Structures are given as C-alpha cells and as structure tokens.
What we know:
Elements: E1 11-16, E2 30-35, E3 44-50, E4 55-61, E5 71-76, E6 82-89, E7 92-100, E8 106-115, E9 120-129, E10 135-138, E11 141-148, E12 151-158, E13 161-170, E14 173-180, E15 183-190, E16 196-199, E17 203-204, E18 207-208, H1 212-222, H2 227-231, E19 236-244, E20 250-257, H3 263-272, E21 277-278, E22 280-282, E23 285-287, E24 289-297
Antiparallel strand pairs: 1-2, 2-3, 3-4, 4-5, 5-6, 6-7, 7-8, 8-9, 9-10, 10-11, 11-12, 12-13, 13-14, 14-15, 15-16, 17-22, 18-21, 19-20, 19-24, 22-23
Amino acid sequence: LSFAQTTKIVSKMFYFDSQGQLSTEKDYEYYRIVRDYETQKELYEINDYYKSGVLRMTGTSTDKDILKREGLFIFYNQNGIKNHMTTYKQGFIEGKEFSWYEDGNKKQEAEYIYQPTERNNLYKINQFWDKNKNHTVIDGNGLYLLEENDNQLFGKITNGLRDSIWTGKKNNIKFTEIYKSGKFQNGTSIDSTDTKYNYTEFQTRPMPAKGMSHFTDYLASNIKITTDAKLINLSGRMVLEFIIEKDGKITNIKVIKGIGNGMNDEVVKVLSKYPKWIPAKSMGIPYKVLHTIPIVLW
C-alpha cells in the first residue's frame, strides 16, 4: 500500500498460515497490515484480518517485521464480535484481561499479576459468567463451568485462584487436575483410546533419552569429514530439520542449510541412526513435533 506520487511504503502487508508462520498470497489463513512501515517509531500499529477482510486482531508492536507485543491487544472472531482483550508489557501479558462468548456476552474478567520473586505471572479469575449468563464467580470466589463446543472445564475458584479438583475435556482428552492456592500439583489425562497418563507438567519439550550432552557428543564422534570436504578444508554451519515422532523416533530429516561436498548426506546418515528421544508431551500424552538444530563443522 503506497501513495501514487511516491514509492515510499506507507503500510506493508504480510501473509500467515494457520500456525502463524509467514506464508504467501496463494496459501494463507490471515494477513497483517503494519501501518507507517517506513517511519521509525517506538510502536507500530498492527492489524490482522481474516481472509474475508474482517478484523482479527489490533495492537501495537515495538518491531515492524516481527510481532513484539506492547500495550493493548483486542481480538475478534470471524463475525466481527470482540472476544478477547489483554495488555502486554515487553512481550508478556500483564494486567487486566477480558473475554466474551461468540454471541458477545461476557465470559470472564481476569488479571495477570507479576511476581518478581518467582519471576512469573500469577493468574487470577475475578469474575466469570457461564454460557447461560449466570454470574458464577463473583469477586474471585465461586464455581467455574466453561462449556464451549466440545470442550469443558469445571472447578472451584478461591480468592481468584484455582483450588482443589478441576475436571475437563479438551480435544477428546478427559483430564483431572489438582490445584492448591492456584498452583498446579498434578494431573491425570485419558485419551480417545482410554489410555491413562499421569503428569506434573502441562507441556514438556522433546529431549534425547540420555541427555543433550550425549546427543551432541554422538554427533561430534560419528560425523566423518568426507574426502572432498578435506581437500578444501570445508567448514561451516548447517541447519537440519526433523520430526520427533510420538514414540521418540527421528524421521523426515531435511537439510535446511547445507555445506555440500558430501557432508549433507553424511550428517543425515549419522543423525538417522541416533536412538530414540523422549517425545514431547502435552498433559502427559506424547505427540510428534518438528525440531530444528544447528550443526557447526570446522
């Protein structure tokens, strides 16, 4: 978008896929317009739109190319009704948060309170209304019952914090969790096959079963410099992408950035023979993830 009299870009458009990754005009889920793109500013106005042209999000960013949230952000559903409003400080949510149901009725009023000692935010639910407009959590106390689509969440709120036993269903996964004064203690989930999982963390990242040091030592010990690479004293940085499956196996290895002379194939061969990882887990349930690693050869 620009003025006809000049080539200066007044606003710039970016396209994104369903995962929030940069995409193209031929294959995108939503687009972003950054106002005053070529003007040096402390905050840039950011507006996201659905394919239909309906406003999806509005807010401000300290960076015009990478979304670094700062200040008030408002989110809308596809029929243009506001569904969420929150404030960011240096990229982190802080302060009051408001949300609404798809029909525009109030859902909840909450707040994020920064705790400098623990260096995290305490999340408090101050008011909550169920889908039938019943005000069930008043001034931080009451029962929380959220039913949206096929998802459910039920539990007790005391002084704004989750307390005691909470139950729910999310994406066909049933779960029970224990809280004490807002702090998660442990949980049990049951998937669609009725398999039960216990967990003490909501989400965990994939990790080599013998630790990251073992993984890096394995690569360093087993990657052999090819004859062609030796002849020219080849060195450089490679970037590899692969999938860590639900059972921990490494599959679909791709060289995103290679250095050639036989080294790309050599690194892929060595990596493919590494033992299983501990897979990523959500609520104790393993799931496959895309993983990227840099490898420096010298």
